[in-house]
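As the work plan foresaw, our protein records have gained a C-alpha cell line. A representative record is set out beneath this paragraph:
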Amino acid sequence: MLVGEAKAPAGMRLYAIGDVHGCDELLADLHARINRDLAARGAADYRIIHLGDYVDRGPDSRAVIERLARMYAADAKVLCLRGNHDDLLLAFMAGAPGSAEMFLANGGEATLASYGVEAGLVARLLGSHAGLGHRLRDAMPAHHHEFLEALALSFRFGDFFFCHAGIRPGVPLDAQSADDLMWIRAGFLDCDDDLGVVVVHGHTPTRGRPDLRGNRIDIDTGAVFGGPLTCVAIEGSAVRFL
C-alpha cells in the first residue's frame, strides 16, 4: 500500500502532529490551524493524533503536557502516542538503571527546568543524579504522570499506521516491538518496500519540510531546532500539510 493508493476510513479526516519537544506556542498555533481547517472544511468525523516526543530540549515541556493532558481527557477524538523521549522520562522518574544519563544526554534538563527542578552544577560535573528522577516525579502533577503512563504505541486508521518512529519491515503490525515503534531508524527509513500500510511517523528530523515517501510520511520537521511544527491532514487518499 503506497501513498496515493492508501485510504483513510470513509468520512473520517485524520490529522497527525509531529515531534513537539516543549514548543508549546507552536503546538497552540497548530491546534488553532486545525480548528480553522475543520471550520472551513467540515468533516463528518476526525481524529487529531500526536506522534510523541512532547518533552525535552524545548522551552516548556510542562505546558505541552498540561495542554495535551487536558485535551486528551476532554475529547475522545484527541489521541496521543508515546515517543522515545516520553518513555525515557518515565524510566527516569521510575529510577531505572542508566536512565538518568540517557535522559539528561537527550535534553532532559530542559524538562527538569520546566517543572522547577534543577539538576545542579555538582550533579552535572560529577554525574551524580541520585534522587533527581524522584524529585521530578514529586514536582509533576499527578494528571501529567497519568497522561504519560497512558500513552499508546500505535494507532491504525484504514490504510494508515501511526507511530512515533516507524516499524520493522517484515514483522506483522500487531507483533511490532515497543523499542522499534519508538526508536527505529535503520532498516525502516531505508526501506522502499510496500509495507501493507502507509506509516505516518516522526522521530527523525527532516530539514524543515515533511518527507513524503511511497510507503511512509515523516512529519518531524525539527520544530525545536527552528523548523516548523507540522501537521499532516489525510482524507480519503488525499494528503496535505498544515
